[in-house]
Each structure stands twice: as C-alpha cells, then as structure tokens.
Amino acid sequence: MLSYLLQRVGLAAITCVFISALTFMIIRLPPGDFVDAYIANLVASGSSVSQEQAAAMRIEYGLDQPVIVQYARWIGRVLQGDFGVSMVWRRPVSEVIGDRLWLTMVVSVAALFLTWAIALPIGIYSAVRQYSIGDYVFTTLGFIGLAIPNFLLALILMYLGFRYLGLSVGGLFSPEYVQAEWSWGRVWDLMTHLPLPAAVLALAGTAQLIRIMRANLLDELRRPYVVTARAKGLSERRVVLKYPVRAALNPFASSIAYLFPYLVSGSIVVSLVLGLPTVGPLLLQALVAQDMFLAGAIVLLLGVMTVVGTLISDLLLMWIDPRIRLEGRA
Amino acid sequence: MAERTSLAVRDLAVHFEMEQGTVRALEGVSFDLHAGRTLGIVGESGCGKSVTARSILRILDRPGRIVGGRILLDPGAPGETDLIAMNAESERMRGIRGGRIGLIFQEPMTALSVHYTVGNQIIEAVRQHSDLSKAAARDRAIELLREVGIPRPELRVEAYPFQLSGGLRQRVGIAMALAGDPDILIADEPTTALDVTTQAQVLDLLRRLQQEKGIALMLITHDMGVIAEMCDEVAVMYLGRVVEYAPVLELFTTPRHPYTRALLRAVPSILATPRQRLATIGGAVPHPGARPAGCAFHPRCADFMPGRCDVGAPPPLAPGHAGASCFLEVPA
Known about the structure:
The complex is a heterodimer. Chain A is an all-alpha fold.
C-alpha cells in the first residue's frame, strides 16, 4: 500500500516536471525573447531603449545563458512564487492571477460537489428503477442538459434570477465588495453569489455523470454478488447501497481527475458571460494578446491541478477498491 | 419414508414478459424437499433450474414473474406458509431468505463482493438473522469458517475474496449460506466452476453438513456424476417441466423418460473403447419462447411417436411419485 502511494506521488512529481518543461517551451515559442517583446512594447508606447540597456536586461534575466540554465532559473523563480511579469497588465503575473486562482477553485469545487450531489442519487434511482417513468423523466432532462450550451443556460438563469428573484447577477461579488479587502461580509457575499455559476457549471457535467452512474450500476446490478446479498435476506435498499453502488463508484472516482481541469478550462465562455473573476477568461485574454508569461503560468497551474486531481482520484480509488490497496493494481 | 417435508413446490409457473413475447420459463414444476435428504435437479442449460431456485427465495429478477403455483414452507405443519402469497420484500420473507432457506452459488469468483472482507459479508448475514453483537457475530463467523474447513479462520476472516483460492471461496459461500442457520439449502451448481479435486472436497463438505444438521438439500447440477454421488431423489427437468422423478438408484438403472436415457448415454464412460464417439442428444434446447407443440422434447426424442407426441402434452407427474411425464408411460 505504501509503495503504491509512493509510486503515485513520484509519478505525479515527474509529470509536473514535464509539464513545467512544456510550459517553458510555450513561453519561449514566440519569435524573439522576452526583452525583444518588452522593447517592442515600450517602443509602441513611445519610449525607447538603448542597445546597452537591452544587453544589461538580457544578462539580468539570464537570457544569454544556455536554455537549460534559463529553464532552471525560471523554475527556481516559479517555485518562489515569481511567475514573471505580464506584458499586457505590466504587473507581476502572480499579482494578476492572485485571487482569481482561489476564486476559480472555489467555484470549481462548488460545481463539483453540486454535480455529485445531483448526479449520484439520480443515477442510482435511474438504474434501480430502469425504464420507470422517473427514469425517463430524468433521462430526458439529462439529455436536454447535455444539449444546451452552458453559456445559453447561464444567460437564461441570469435573466430569470434578475427578473424574478431580484438577484444581483454577474460576477462573484456585489459591487461594494468587488475591490474590498477580505472580511466575513465579503465571504458571505461570495457564498450568496456562488449558487448561480456553480449550478450552470454543474449541470452539463451532471447530465454526463448521471448517464455514467446509471450505466455502471445497471452493469453491477446484474452481478452474482447482488443475488448473494439478496439471498441473505437483506433489504433491497441495503443490498443496492452497500454492494453494487460501491462497485459503480469506481469509474466515478476516476472521472474526478479530468473533471477538475474541465471545470476550469471548459468554463471560459460561461465565466465571460457571467463575468466571473476566474482564471478562464484571463487565459483567453493572455492567449489572444500573446502574453506568454501569463499564459505560461496559467497553463502550468492548470497542468499541476490536473496532476493533483489525478492523485486525489487515485487515493479515492485506493479507499474504494481494496484490490488496488492490497495489490497495487486495478 | 417418514422424513419431515420441509418444502413443497406445487405447479410453479414462471413467465418472463419480454418484448418479443412471453417466455414460459417454468410450467407447472412440482417437487418436495425432505429434512436430511438431497433432491437433485438435473437438466441442460436453460431448462429452468436456476429460475426455480430464485423463485423459491422470491429473488427472481424482472422481467421474471411467478404466475401460478404454491411454494409451501413446512407443508402440513401448523405454521405452513405459502411463500408465493407473501410480499417478496416483507420483513418475514426476508427472515426466511437466509434464515430458513440458504443459497449456495455457482460462481465462487463473482458471487462474493470484492469490496468487503469475507468476515464483513458473513457477519452481515449472521446479524441479519440474530441479535448478536458485532463481536459475537464475528466469533460466529470465525466458527462458521472453521466449520466449512477453512484453515486459520481467525486470519481468513479479515481476507478479501480475491485473496482466496476458488475452493476456499466456495467454502466461504457455504459458510455464508449457513450464517442464518437455515434448515433448507439450495446449491445452484456449487461445483461447476471448481477443479475436480476441489469439487470432491466441497461435495464431501455439503454431505457432512447435511448429515450433522439434518438439512434438506436441493442440489442443482448438470453433472450426472454429482447426482449419483450426492442425491437421494432426482428430478429431471426439460424446458421448464419436471419430465422424470425417481430415487437415484432407479434413475440410473431404469431410466424411463427418453430424455433421461439420452442424458445418461451422454455421460462419458471410462469403459468406452478409445476413439469411440461420445453420445450426444441431437439438436439443441429450443428457445423457451419457441416451445415445440405437444411434448416439448419430441423434436429430439429417439422414441418420437408421430401424431401423438407432437399433438398433446403428456400428463404431468404427480409430486412425490416416481415416474416419467411421457406418452410411453400412458397406454394409447
């Protein structure tokens, strides 16, 4: 069990190194180096830089060194929280991303829990009562949920929320809290704004997970161990919840790994529509403006988050499935 | 025979309502189970053996439905109960399931959940049918594992099924079936998935347990060797009907139904000359949805009498009496 754990953590670390190398390549991808881009930027805004100044900057940023050394320096700074300077914002990348990263995670995790809270019970119901009226209703709703583009749903919900419930829609904060320092009032304001974006982000994933859960559970319900459990005289409820549902959770847990980055990167359009101060729209802007340090930092963070998500799902699988725990393989 | 009759199945009929039409899986099956005796149920795949077992426990999966007959627990006794009249999910039926009637499975690999320890799954069954505390139920589980011949049961109780061999798993299955202390055991092909040596051990175990506890055993199999070794009486099933019922010795010496004779001919003999072709029964079991008219066996029967066997069905057997449901038994 311990060796499995160490193996997983080790693999995760190695993957992170590869991701960082890839990110570094992306940052260096545009022609010229950072100083060229910086000078071009300054020239565009009217000031100029001498050759000596440029050379001094190159030395200062280590751009005269071999690529490997540059990478090592860059990763060293990244590990200290210094992601470089955003050319568009003219501020350190870490400052630009700042709160957005945490807000993104808050929204994503809220959406994730909402997805599970809706998808699990409905999936179980749909499988146990296959072809019942309820199953058909949920299936229909699920497919509608899959088919409607998220941003459209966001617009509709915003309209309904504003028109009939008088909610302050858009963004994660009321106007008076947008620039405010963190306080209990601001946290509460965040909580009240969270349901709408979380619901919009959760719904498509929910429809998908309902289908996955239903299909998994239908498979498991036919297995002999379910008959064994029934033959013991257990109540049907206990039989279903203890045995097949547990087995059906297995692929469910694996899906966490890619659900997390999906919620972040797949939510760009929704975030734009809802005006959410999350990482998604920032990534879009950075890519359009070729703001490579900012884009690189976001890509790196998304990559690392995916790896962490995978690690979490591995740990969950270990907890769910004793075969993995005891044999170190699925 | 003065044995107590534990369970009487009468005219049991089960239909599966499919989109393609109704499949008559069982059509009037009758037999008795006696305390301390073993009834063998034999027949090809699809003849309704497992459906019979699940019907008795009332755990038949949809779209299967019991459409007729009675399943009497303790027939003739003051507490006689018709299981078919009961709600399958009722407290009382759940008490009978596992508590009076235990089920042993065909597949020791898949019949146990891999997600819980052997102990967890047995303790659950023990506590379902008793008021024992967790600790006491655990002791009982260890005792049960010892009883079915599992070495070092106090360690094995913590093992997961995938850590045990097939033979040990089947023993665990038997221990689980015994957890509610039932007096009737239904074993659905308990040795089919095991190698021959392990088969013999498991059969010995079943016989020993039956003798110690006076259990009424219903042994479902398609293995004539197992029938010969284990059973007191035998019911031969074909397409949802009992076509012959006889004491085991009689069945092997003077089989009366052409289907039984064909089954016995198909058993490979150690006395056969080398390269001799194995006897087979011509054709295949028809799909239960496309049941032949008249006697269902007539298209494959060596003694087929045109104008008789394909016109009407032979009279069903009277329960508890040896005989064959065949026109050969009925004077024209």
